[in-house]
Amino acid sequence: MTHHADPLSATRAWVESFVVGREVCPFAGREIARDSVRYVTVEAARLEAALLRLMEECWHLDTHPETETTLLVLSDGLADFDDYLDALGLAESLLVEQGYEGIYQLASFHPDYQFEGEAEDAPRNFTNRSPWPMWHLIREAGLERALAHYPDPEGIPVRNEARMQALGTERLAASLAALRGAAR
């Protein structure tokens, strides 16, 4: 696998090889094919600036209906998962405060993602592990349309957990490490 030290390059490769390639998100392939996914690097060392950039991406989505979703790749900051979770909470609160509740939602991804109550090395965690910390800004209306046409949307997490279990932690970790390359 190719090493991607650049956060955007690593993220694009992860989306194509893991999210779409392993069908972790059954809706992502369509958006990749439509070129409706926006990738943005956000300097996260200064949280206020990162939160402002999140708002700018909301405004971008407001005025660009052809863009379905934005992946905000958080470089240079928030490498610690607990710090990332704190920042995510602020970002989610900001969306509500700015009137975007029900319009956009944030999905969260991090190289050290760990579901509450899961062991650190549980394969399930890899459904939300990415090469770089990331906020995925999603149009709720688009998500609702996709879910309405998908059989058994409630089964997606169960199916993904089984797929991750079949791949195993060692293989998943190696794949993610290869994408991160020397960047981490």
TrEMBL record:
InterPro entries: DUF1415
Pfam families listed in its UniProt record: DUF1415
Protein name as catalogued: DUF1415 domain-containing protein
Source organism superkingdom: Bacteria
